[in-house]
Amino acid sequence: MISFKSKYSWSIEEICKNVGFSRQTFEAHWRNHKWFPKPYFKSGNLVLYRGTKIEEFVEKIEKHGGV
Q1: Which residues have C-beta within 8 Å of that of residue 11, sequence separation ≥ 6?
Q2: Separation of alpha carbons 3 and 58, rounded Å
Q3: Are the CB atoms for 23 and 12 separated by under 8 Å?
Q4: How far apart are the C-alpha atoms of 33 and 35, rounded to whole Å?
Q5: What is the pLDDT along the chain (67 residues), one digit of tens a residue?
């Protein structure tokens, strides 16, 4: 898995590919998690998240022992 900080913005598809999740797993375990960052851009089917915010979320999850 490459660091989410390496890119400014990430789509849901890119996040799933980077962590090796299916879209269903992402929806079930990450997207609705209370710590998951809010998107900074939404337009139609495109939703983008900031890489630094996703990285902070991953670090917080790892620190507290998983989702």
Answers
A1: 46, 47, 48, 49
A2: 10
A3: yes
A4: 5
A5: 778 988 999 999 999 999 999 999 999 989 889 999 999 999 999 999 999 999 999 999 989 877 6
In angstroms, the CA 64 to CA 25 distance is 19
The CA-based dihedral angle spanning residues 3, 14, 25, 63, taken in that order and rounded to the nearest 10 degrees:
20
Residue located via tokens 């998690």: 33
Report the distance separating Cα 65 and Cα 46, nearest Å: 31
Q: Where are the alpha helices (DSSP H) in the chain?
A: 12-19, 23-26, 51-63
Distance between CA atoms of 21 and 67, rounded to whole angstroms? 13
